Amino acid sequence: MRIGVYPGTFDPVTLGHLSIIRRGAKLVDRLIIGVTTNPSKSPMFTVEERVAAVRREVAGLAGDVHVVTFNSLLMDFADREGASVIIRGLRAVADFEYEYQMAGMNQQLNDRVETAFLMADAALQPIASKLVKEIAMYGGDITKFVPPTVRDEVLARVEALGRKGDK
Fold this sequence. Notes:
The chain is about 45% helix and about 20% strand. The chain is α/β, with parallel strands linked by helices. It is globular and about 45 Å long. The termini are far apart. The mean pLDDT is about 90.
């Protein structure tokens, strides 16, 4: 069985993420979406909230797709899950430079796991969770970037935190 891992913070999960998930699920027998917290980022949602959102958004997908949390080195997580491939999405050249370096480091840690890069759909390439949150914080429309339920959750969280444009 070919198992793939698609790791990320998914804060929030975007249409770009979901595109990579749909396409990645076709490449493996089982896709495990690993939701983690990046210490260099300040998440808007808790890990539990992010897992719930991703699970809800992938519920109707074909294939064997699981959503779990992890808080370890990616290669240790991939090894524990029995994965043979890490799936990563690329949007732009800047993503490639970072991901290329990460893939090289990961290969040094565990050369039994390959990294596969999927290009984001052209219409979804500019979408980044960080930008979605920023647009929402300033009262912009994020409808084109996230599923409707995620949009509602982001807007509710922004309202609870207080929009930047209101200060």
